[in-house]
Write a structure and sequence with these properties.
The chain is an alpha+beta fold and about 100 residues long.
């Protein structure tokens, strides 16, 4: 029997909390490592988006992608309200995942 896959929709920002990046992945640890290593000339590297401030877990990739697309259409105010529901202090949720924060 195969292990059930999980998929995460996540929001990154920088210390000034502007701008936001919303993404989806099947491996949060690997994906955060990629963001922190600035592996390519990406949007997240350009704006130093290294702080994981929000994520949701899904058991179905289609649901995760649907949610990512939904959040991407939201206003900045609505995204802030979403983060505030689970992370009102805007802590870096990945800070203790084995790599020092680059903020």
């Amino acid at each position: 029997m195969r292990d059930p896959k999980t998929y995460n929709v996540y929001i990154l920002t920088n210390p000034s909390q502007h701008p936001f990046y919303t993404g989806v992945t099947n491996n949060m640890y690997r994906r955060m490592s990629e963001h922190l290593d600035f592996l390519n000339d990406s949007y997240t590297a350009r704006y130093h988006l290294t702080r994981l401030v929000y994520y949701e877990e899904f058991g179905n990739v289609r649901e995760a992608i649907r949610r990512e697309k939904e959040i991407k259409t939201w206003s900045r105010a609505k995204k802030i309200a979403l983060v505030n529901t689970k992370n009102p202090k805007w802590n870096d949720l990945a800070r203790d995942w084995g790599k020092p924060s680059r903020c």
